[in-house]
Design goal:
427 residues, alpha+beta, Alpha-Beta Plaits, Chitinase A, domain 3, five-stranded antiparallel β-sheet, 19% strand
């Protein structure tokens, strides 16, 4: 079989394939065998047992040629991909240039592919893992949060002060246009004054207010605020205090520890808090370490990325975002309004991250190939059983039963093994 490859672009190839007689003879035999079972009945022979020479004479010739052509094209295309070591990401556009049934077949196939991945010397990429240390201050901050959670709350008829919990209605409007700002409002919202959970200046403006009092004030959102549309934006807030409650914090003793959990003393509680905080921070440090390592290698990796892969990644990112919004009770349009962007702008804002994700994935796959990373059927089965035990709801069980679930788990295991290899080199 002859295969010629042309590259109109770094991510697109045109394959010209000339099939040889040996391949076509094999395809013809397979097609006749298939047709003998399902489409041909010859007197004196059981289904599928008649000589193929008789089957060929008895079968509908148009059906035979159609089945032969489909099978030959498929086999020739797959052979061409293997020979040229190509990774297609879409169905090919096939054009037949010559076809004489069973003797001659020439065709071209244009398809978008993943370009060559040129890795840097990833074995020399070094990253320092951050050391995790838990201080008494870290433990005390958790205890302060726990104290506020179990504190007794008493309604008071006085001006609010730091340490009080106020229940408020609030709404934000653009200071210039006076237009309401989506996401900058709330009703019956409990806020602990002094917690610094709102933007700077918000809580301090409520100190001194009384029940049923309404107050308006202007604030400018921080320039690094999480929502891009609100960064450095001047907003007028109107706030009404519904209720003021004084918090009577509990004593830090054995009774307090028992309220929090199965602890006999404050020492036991502090030990557990330190352990939990350390585990969380070590987990975060590990994620940060991996992300920095993969980013460094991916930035130095050279690969032409097909646009379709980036678009698919953006689709996945937006789908995850939509699901999270459902849990938060926010619609997609409300989210876009809060960001101050159109759907097209939102999609474009995702492009850089999506491109880096795709690039990192291609880089990992190439490293896995070079390092000869494999996973066994036993490893996949163990992971499948672990997930089925962990996720017992019917929806997740159904997902795990889908044909593609095993392949997805296998890919994830390969990635995890590959990352561990890179971590060893980076240490």
């Amino acid at each position: 079989m002859q295969v010629k490859k042309e590259s109109p672009s770094p991510t697109k190839v045109k394959l010209t394939v000339i099939c040889d007689q040996k391949m076509m003879d094999a395809v013809k035999q397979e097609v006749l065998t298939h047709l003998a079972k399902d489409h041909v009945k010859i007197q004196g022979f059981r289904s599928g047992k008649a000589p193929l020479s008789l089957v060929e004479k008895s079968v509908d010739q148009n059906l035979l040629q159609s089945e032969f052509l489909d099978s030959a094209l498929n086999r020739g295309y797959v052979h061409a991909l293997d020979e040229k070591e190509l990774r297609p990401i879409a169905q090919p556009e096939v054009s037949i240039s010559k076809f004489v049934p069973f003797t001659t077949l020439e065709f071209t196939a244009e398809v978008e592919v993943i370009g060559d991945v040129k890795l840097p010397d990833y074995k020399k990429v070094k990253v320092t893992r951050k050391k995790v240390e838990i201080t008494d201050k870290d433990v005390n901050e958790v205890i302060d949060t726990l104290k506020a959670r179990v504190a007794e709350k008493t309604d008071v008829d006085r001006a609010a002060k730091d340490g009080d919990e106020v229940t408020i209605d609030f709404a934000g409007t653009d200071a210039k246009t006076k237009e309401p700002i989506s996401g900058a409002d709330g009703k019956g919202y409990p806020l602990l004054l002094g917690s610094n959970s709102f933007i700077p200046g918000f809580e301090s403006n409520l100190v001194g207010m009384k029940k049923d009092e309404t107050k308006s004030f202007d604030l400018t959102f921080p320039k690094d605020y999480g929502v891009a549309a609100l960064q450095s934006r001047k907003v007028t807030f109107e706030v009404t205090v519904q209720k003021i409650q004084e918090l009577v914090e509990p004593k830090l003793d054995a009774d307090f520890a028992a309220k929090i959990g199965p602890f006999k003393s404050m020492a036991d509680l502090k030990t557990d808090i330190k352990k939990q905080v350390k585990a969380e921070r070590e987990s975060q440090a590990e994620r940060d370490f991996q992300n920095e390592l993969l980013s460094k290698i991916a930035e130095k990796t050279e690969v032409a990325i097909p646009g379709a892969l980036v678009e698919s990644e953006i689709d996945r990112m937006e789908q995850e975002e939509r699901q999270n919004l459902v849990y938060r009770g926010q619609t997609w349009q409300e989210h876009l309004d809060a960001e101050g962007v159109t759907e097209e702008q939102h999609r474009e804002n995702q492009r850089e991250m999506a491109t880096m994700r795709v690039k990192s994935g291609l880089m990992l796959a190439e490293v896995a190939k070079q390092e000869k990373v494999v996973v066994s059927a036993e490893e996949i089965e163990q992971q499948m059983e672990a997930l089925k035990t962990q996720y017992t709801d019917q929806a997740m069980q159904a997902e795990l039963s889908k044909p593609g679930a095993r392949q997805e788990i296998a890919s994830r295991l390969v990635s995890e093994k590959t990352i561990k290899i890179l971590e060893k080199y980076a240490a």
